[in-house]
Structure formats: C-alpha cells, structure tokens
Amino acid sequence: MLLRIRDIALPEEDNAECHGGDHRRKDGKWIASFCVRTGPGDDSLENVNAEFEDRDRAIAALWLLRKDTVGYRTGES
C-alpha cells in the first residue's frame, strides 16, 4: 500500500490515507493501482491501473508516482 500520513486524523480512520497499492493477478502479472486528478485544477479523480511483470517493478512505479497521487477518500495530494 502507498500511504500518506496526514496532519490530522480522518473522521472514520486514523491519519494515514491510501494513495495506491498493488496486487497479483491469477496470470502472475502485478497490477499497481493509484488515484490521480484528471487534469490541472480539476476536482475529478481517476483510478489508474498499470501492469508489471514482477512485484518489485510495481512497487517502484508506486514509489516514483507518489508525489502525483491523491488520496482515495479525500482527493488531496
């Protein structure tokens, strides 16, 4: 999971918000999922999935994209 620690706790959870994650499909491919804004100044969010051959590459992609992602619940960077 790609988590971002927030300054304040969210009402229903704690102060960590999910920005992405990875999972393995039955065919052995790894999928990295993350949430981004659809455009500059846009309030719309989009969940993006990217396919990788192994888990290390999926995790590396999440880490490299960490500053471009937004929270699934709040939409905040």
Question: Care to describe what's here?
Answer:
The chain has 77 residues and is mostly beta strands. It has one domain (2-64). The chain has 1 helix and 4 strands. A 4-stranded antiparallel beta sheet has the order 1-2-3-4, covered by helices on one side. A hairpin with a 7-residue loop joins strand 3 and strand 4. The radius of gyration is 13 Å and the shape is globular. The protein starts with a strand and ends in a 13-residue tail after the last helix. The mean pLDDT is 87.
TL;DR of this structure?
With 77 residues, this protein is mainly β. 13% of the residues lie in helices and 38% in strands.
List keywords for this structure.
77 residues, four-stranded antiparallel sheet
H-E string:
EEEEH
Number of strands: 4
Largest beta-sheet details: 4 strands, antiparallel
Mean pLDDT: 87
Poorly predicted runs of 5 or more residues: none
In the sheet with the most strands, the strands line up as: 1-2-3-4
Based on CA atoms alone, the radius of gyration comes out at: 13 Å
Lay out the secondary structure.
Layout: E1 2-5, E2 16-24, E3 30-37, E4 45-52, H1 55-64
Antiparallel strand pairs: 1-2, 2-3, 3-4
